[in-house]
Structure prediction request, 240 residues.
Amino acid sequence: MTPIRLPNSVAPYLGTLRSALLDALAVVAPTSCVGCAADDRALCAACALELRPRLERGRLPDGTALVTALRYEAVVRTIVLAYKEEGRTDVARALAAPLAAAIGFALSTAPSATRHPRPLQLCTVPTSRGAFRRRGYDPVRLLLRSAGLPRTADVLVPTRRHENQKLLDRSAREQNLAGWLRARHPLSGQEFIVVDDVITTGSTLAEAVRAIREGGGDVVSAVALASTPKLFGNFAFTGF
Ligand SMILES: [Zn+2]
Prediction:
């Protein structure tokens, strides 16, 4: 077998193609529940119930308001991992619903919502090119599109590569990410809600908030689909 080498100009489109093909395959091929492996359904009724939004609010280390929709544990963790790491984009719509609920709450409670007629913009944390190529999709952007919220501001760019965060503790994560992002262009007068999928220590979202503010923009809230148990211990969360 000889590896097929594609011209560089084709590579960026492969991700989109892969995602579309996986969705098409899910329609014709037998599938199983992402959460519990039961046959025939991408998400069984019992696992779908676990995705009912359980909105909680807290604050990032810098004081920015934070809203989360789910707790990253048990079946929720299994579903989110399968969506992010195993190409199970067939559950994007199911995961989009709780994220949309959290964004809706953040919008409704944003301090500027009544002061300015200007709509808030959603902003995501950029994924690395390597992660995009490996997955074939940007998990957070796909959730936003699935929720009918496609107009995401593309305002943040990485200034450099950074180490994988997974094995780092909170202070090491903060050091690893300090200055990692910058605004693509001046953001004065613009307001944002920053959105991410899983929040562990808050360092990634805090870096995104810092970069937007450094660019002259304002962040009224951060939103995450799911918060890890590590986070429950770090922040005083308030249920609704
Ligand atoms: Zn299930």
